[in-house]
Amino acid sequence: MTATVEFEAVDTNSDIGLLSVPRHVAIIMDGNGRWAQRRGLPRTEGHRRGVKTLREAVKHAQKRGISYLTLFSFSSENWSRPQQEVSFLMALLRRFVYDDLKDLVKANVKVRVIGSKENLDKSMLTLLNDAEQKTAHCTGLVLVIAFNYGARDEYVRAARKLAERVEAGELKAADIGEDDVSACLDTHEMPDPDLIVRTGGEQRLSNFLLWQAAYAEFYFAPTPWPEFDSGAFDDALLAFSNRDRRYGGLSSDATGT
Ligand code: FPP
Question: In the UniProt entry, which residues are flagged as the active site (predicted)?
Answer without folding.
Answer: 30, 78
